[in-house]
Amino acid sequence: MVSIENFGISFNETRILENISFDVKPGEIVTLLGSSGCGKTTILRSIAGLQKKHEGYICIGNECVSSKEIYKKDREVGYIFQDYALFPHLNVEENIAFALYKLPKKQKEIRVNELLEQFNIQEHKNKQIHQLSGGQQQRVAIARAMANNPKILLLDEPFSNLDAMLRYKTKIWLKDLIKQMNLSAILVTHDKKEALSISDKIGIVNDKKLVQFDNAKHMFENPNSLYVANFLCEINQLPNTYIKDLGLNIEENKVAIIKIEDCKVSKNSSECKVKILDISFCGEYYELVLDFIDYKSKTILVKVSSIDNLNISDEVFMHIDKNNIKIIDK
Ligand SMILES: Nc1ncnc2c1ncn2[C@@H]1O[C@H](COP(=O)(O)OP(=O)(O)OP(=O)(O)O)[C@@H](O)[C@H]1O
Asked: Structural domain tally of the chain?
């Protein structure tokens, strides 16, 4: 179990994060999502003990490993860095052995062989890092991170160097590993689909704060703000005046959203007239950019499977089910 309580940090008097609190239970995968530079890696580095000066507490198990008063260097944490941070002048075996510097020679040899076998990289043990594929390098990085049987696994963009098929397979493999070993895992990614598919819980960081921390499915269904909704889901924001005309109540500080998949268009008359501004082919579907004719608003997107009879500049009708509209904080 890892617990972060009232974590905050500044660099050169610039406030980066404040009041960040969350727990990760054994066997749980938590993903941190947020725009570039919001402080996700800084949270991982602080848990790993690489970032010493911060506010609040970081506890692993029942032990507080980091606060103003206590700082414990040796933590049961495995860290997989974004670029894997393998040593280019050492071979695979030596890279893994590096993490086991405290063990006597014989025990180190036994543990390295166990890890080479567990992560299926025995045949590469004498290779230099540049002789490995991205997926093989990733396995070496994971083997090294797991060498000392950590309780916590930190993963910074672990799939970013892998192609789509390998990403998919590695994700399943890694998820199984975390569950089997009962690790508390914290993952940083930019990919919301990846976050939704691998995580038990998701934390969204925005403007220095953890703005929502929740079960992945629950957060997807119930984003608590426009920022979270935009980050996690494909949504359209609907004009407040349109919402009022639909007979729904909406306060000034609220916004109405609807999932893109819940918006349909047709040429048949209904209450909401829109104009097609653009049509893009996206493979499995076409994306239409639409503008409301009777309401001032930003453009909205609708996905359609075919564009028979639909052309740019056409005026068509948008259909939505009122029950699919969510009213949330701005
Ligand atoms: N050691 C440091 N000294 C000064 N500023 C730092 C230091 N480490 C990080 N920062 C700053 O803190 C902010 C957060 O950085 P961090 O790497 O944690 O963001 P991130 O959310 O992981 O970004 P990305 O998604 O782009 O990897 C950035 O503005 C960065 O420039």
From this structure: 2
Boundary of a domain, candidates 230, 265, 288: 230
Is pLDDT of 69 > 90? no
Q: Are residues 13 and 122 in the same domain?
A: yes
Residues 219 and 304 placed together within one structural domain of the fold: no
Instruction: Give, for ligand 1, the residue of 11, 79, 187 to mutate: max count of ligand atoms closer than 8 Å to Cβ.
Output: 11
User: pLDDT tier at 216 (50, 70, 90 boundaries)?
Assistant: very high
Residue 260 backbone phi and psi in degrees, to 5: -55, -40
| pLDDT value for 159 | 85
Q: How much is the pLDDT for 75?
A: 84
Measured from CB, residues less than 6 Å from any atom of ligand 1 are: 11-12, 16, 34, 36-42
Question: Do 222 and 96 belong together in one domain?
Answer: yes
Give yes or no: residues 225 and 241 share one domain. no
Given a cut of 80, whether residue 301 has pLDDT beyond it is yes
Grade residue 270 by pLDDT with cuts at 50, 70 and 90.
Answer: confident
Domain around 243 = 234-329
